[in-house]
Each structure stands twice: as C-alpha cells, then as structure tokens.
Amino acid sequence: MSTPATGRNGAAPDRGFAGELRDAVTLRSFTLVLGVLILQLAFILSYIGAFHSPTPHRIPVAVVAPGQAAGQVAAQLNALKGTPLKARTAPSEQRARHLILDRTIDAAILVDPHGGTDTLLVASASGPAVSSTTQQIAAGIEQSRHRQVRTVDIRPPAAGDGRGLSSFYLVIGWIVGGYLAAAILGLAGGARPANLRRTIIRLGALALYAIVSGLGGAIIAGPVLGALNGHFWALWGIGALVVMAAAATTVAFQILLGMIGIGLAILVFVVLGNPSAGGAYPMTLLPAFWRAIGDWLPTGAGTTAVRNTVYFSGHATGQALGVLAGYAVLGSAVAVAASAAHLRYMRLVPDGPAMSSSRQSQANQSPKRE
183: closest CA among 258, 270, 277, 245? Predict the structure, then answer.
C-alpha cells in the first residue's frame, strides 16, 4: 500500500488541482456515474415514450346485433383509420358479457334495432383508460350514424380501489422489495458469493423474504386499506412469486455481471417494467415496443395476475403466473449455474481477478477473529 510523499514539515505536498482531480475521479467512479446517467436518461425516455401520446391499438370488442347487421358493424369498426379496435361478433348480450369477464374482449356494443340508442358494455376494473377510450370511439361512430350510445360498466373497481390502480401499485411495491433485498445482500456479502452453498443460502433467504413480503402486501392491500378485498390467500401467493421473481433475477444478474447487475435489474424492472405493465395505461394504448414487452416482464405479469384474480375470477392469469414462475425458477437456476462456473474459473485462474473478487467476498462474509 503506497503512502503520499511528505514534505519537510510532515505535510503532504501540494499536488495542485489537476493532481487531486485525477485521484478523486477514478475510471471506476466515472464509469459508475456514467451508468447512472444512462439509466436516468433511459428512465425519462421510457416513461415519456410510453405515456406521452396514448393511442388505441386493436382494442378487442364484440358487436351484438340482429342478422347481418352484426357483421356489418364489426367490419365498419375494423376499417377505422389506425385500427383502434379489433371487432368480432357475439350472438347475444349474455355471451358478450361473458367474453368481457373472461378477458377475451374489453368492451361490447349492443345495437338496438328498434331505437336510436345503442349500449356499450365495459369493465373499467381492467383499466379506466381503455374504457374511456372505447367510449370516445363509440360516441364518434354513433354520432356519424346519427345515433346515441349509453355506457354500462359491468365490472367497476371496488370502492376502495379508486381508479383501479391498486393492483399496479401493489405489484410495484413487491418488485422494488425483491430487487432491493437481493441488491442489499450483494452489497453486504459480495455480488458473487464465496461458494456455491452461500449462493443457495442467499436464494433461500430471499425465498423466505418473498413469503413475508407477499404476506405484508396482501395484508395492507386487503384488511388494512380495503383496496383489494376477498382474495387474501391468492394475493399472498402471487406476491411471494412476484418478489421471488425479482429477487432471483437480480441475484443472477449480480453473479453474472457483478455490481453492474443491480443497474440491469433497475433497467428491467423499473425503466422498462413499470411503463409497460398496463397500470396507468393498458397495453392496448401503449406504443408497439412497450406493448411487446409488457406481458413478458414481472411487473406486467404481476399486475395482470393480481387484477384478474381480484376482479375477473382468475381468468387469463395462466400466462402471467407462468412468466413470474419462469423468472423465479430460471433466475435461481442461472444464479446457481453462474456461481458454479465462477468458482471453476477461480480454480483454473488462481491469481486472476475472479480470485481477488472471491477473496474480498470471503473477507466481507467471514467473521473477524481477534
């Protein structure tokens, strides 16, 4: 370890501003700050890019009308400029309601052949933005046909759920807890655990944390605030899965990339995951990029699983739960495999940077002896 040279009076010589700047701003610190700047700009780009101009794209709807009129109205809706709707026919109002509640469609238009007012069925619990957008489109079409439209909300949000956003915010809380817990363990004990057993122990500790975190979120959203009532056990299970998905993936990122893995976790879960999750705006109102990734990231999958469990009897949750399970299982598997590969590399290159990293990790994790 080097020490600075001292002058005759024992004081360090004045190295000037340039010399102090070189010592203060190292390549590592510059790289880390540059990474933060990139994440910050990506955050701004992602959120404004997703939300600055919500535009409907192929919102699934059904048309109920007598005879050939149903097909004609559906064809008219599908021919709208920009394809805001994806229309199909339904044989009856009962069937249309069933399609909305099982999440096959978002809305249905019931054409009244004997009057001048048609009916639009919506379920605003799935997201008030898409319901209001559908109402605006339907009103414009009916006005051009010199008809009127009335809206019937067959599944509104619960009284304690405001605009139906509690599912989204609950999942964000679980996601943040998952990747922060994994990141803190990485900072405290080293991004790459000293041996395979410690990797497994870390994942086991995070699994216990996920169970407790899922329980806490379900209690707050249900019994405490009354926002999402009546599905306590299901929410607990979904919450534990969401937290473990974020935590295991973050551990895998850290073992593969070191501390850079925390930045990658923030990129995936926050910068990309939040705006594409279908919370503030459903995916049918988002630009193509965010529509494409939303269902395949834990935030979007978790939001869909919670919302459809609470309001739609668990319909259309299979893919969402599969995505969450995939992140949890594959994240854990990659973490263990990457840790084993890292340890093999250390044995092959005993004096390489990997060994130095491992020694530092062991120093952080082992108890000090007097």
Answer: 258
The Cα–Cα gap between 193 and 123 comes to 48
Residues 322 and 232 in one domain: yes
Nearest to 278 by CA among 256, 296, 261, 266: 296
Q: Cβ distance 151 to 123 under 8 Å? A: no
Residue 343 lies in a domain: yes
Indicate if 132 and 271 belong to the same structural domain: no
Are 233 and 279 part of one and the same domain?
yes
Nearest Cα to Cα of residue 71 among 42, 119, 111: 111
Give the range of the structural domain holding residue 281, as residue numbers without chain letter: 161-365
Statement to judge: residues 126 and 250 lie in one domain = no
Give me the sheet containing 117-122, strands edge to edge. Answer: 85-89, 59-64, 107-110, 117-122, 148-153
Within 10 Å of residue 21's Cβ, how many Cβ atoms? 10
Residues 6+ apart with CB under 8 A from 46: 271, 272, 275, 290
Tens-binned pLDDT, residue by residue, of the chain (370 aa): 445 555 555 555 666 777 777 777 788 788 888 989 999 999 999 999 999 999 999 999 999 999 999 999 999 999 999 999 999 999 999 999 999 999 999 999 999 988 889 999 999 999 889 999 999 999 888 888 888 999 999 999 999 998 899 999 999 999 999 999 999 999 998 888 888 999 999 999 999 999 999 999 999 999 999 999 999 999 999 999 999 999 999 999 999 999 899 999 999 999 999 999 999 899 999 999 999 999 999 999 999 999 999 999 999 999 999 999 999 999 999 999 999 998 888 888 765 544 444 454 554 544 444 3
- Residue where a domain terminates, one of 156, 187, 217: 156
> Does one domain contain both 222 and 354?
yes
> Of 107, 131, 156, which residue sits at a domain end?
156
Q: Are residues 278 and 353 in the same domain?
A: yes
